[in-house]
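Re: beginner question about structure tokens

> Can someone show what the tokenized structure looks like for a real chain? I only ever see the sequence side.

Sure, here's an example I had lying around. Input first:
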Amino acid sequence: MSFPDIVPDLKAKMPELRGRLLANQSLGEFTWFRVGGPAQAFFMPEDENDLAYFLRNLPSEIPVTVIGAGSNLIVRDGGVPGVVVRLGRGFNDVKIEDHRVTAGTAMLDVMVARAAQAAGVAGLAFLSGIPGTIGGALRMNGGAYGGETKDILIDARGVDRQGNVRNFSNGEMGFSYRQCSVPDDVIFTAATLRGRAGATEEIAAEMVEIKKKREASQPRNRTGGSTFKNPPGHSAWKLVDDAGCRGLTIGGAQVSELHSNFLINLGGASAADIETLGETVRQRVKAHSGVELEGEIKRVGVGR
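And the corresponding structure tokens:
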């Protein structure tokens, strides 16, 4: 499937655009599941000013979808209408001063943790256990191994749909479990994180332990990370287990045998297979325990 090409018209409206703007770019290669259709238009801005210029001049009726590392994402098989924005090299830097870490939102969480460790900044090691970018951590209050983004964020910066650059304090982010309350049309561009003095060897040892735990308990297949949020008083994986869903397979998608809160692409799955499997698990858990599981994986686009 492909969409009508809107790229020539967009380029004509934005003669000063510097980033890459492509028509009908396949998105499967940008997701951990390795599934999904194309973006009608795919934009990789050169830097924050380029992003602001693009959004300021983009017709308001054209929807915008943002993707990062694609670790907690299903792109549906029919693709994504409108514009998909993916931040790249212009948002991929990190600066450290006085135990404050300022990182572009395209930076992988693990790379920020490693930079902090090398500089003797403690308190950010848990980021090494989150399979995503700083942008995703801001949007979802990403957390793992006893830490959450809300615990370390000083402030964040972003660009809204009108092309305005905005700053958000920790309190203005409205953090709660695996989400923030900043409007969805804001594209985060940078974050400043608070650490503390630490010994590089001790921080490195902490990160090694986190890596060991992840590798022992989580599948390495094509996956999307944790599928469901933990309901209050429950563990999602146990609810899925108790409902008899470990190993459940639909098409080319399977509930992981290693960790039942992970869905995996066995190699030939479609996005529809993965989404249908997730919904089937939700229904079975509801029928067995009465608990309504809430998804942690973002789903975008349209079906075929």
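Each token stands for a local structural state, so reading them left to right follows the chain. Residues 92-202 form a domain with the Uridine Diphospho-n-acetylenolpyruvylglucosamine Reductase; domain 3 fold (CATH 3.30.465.10).
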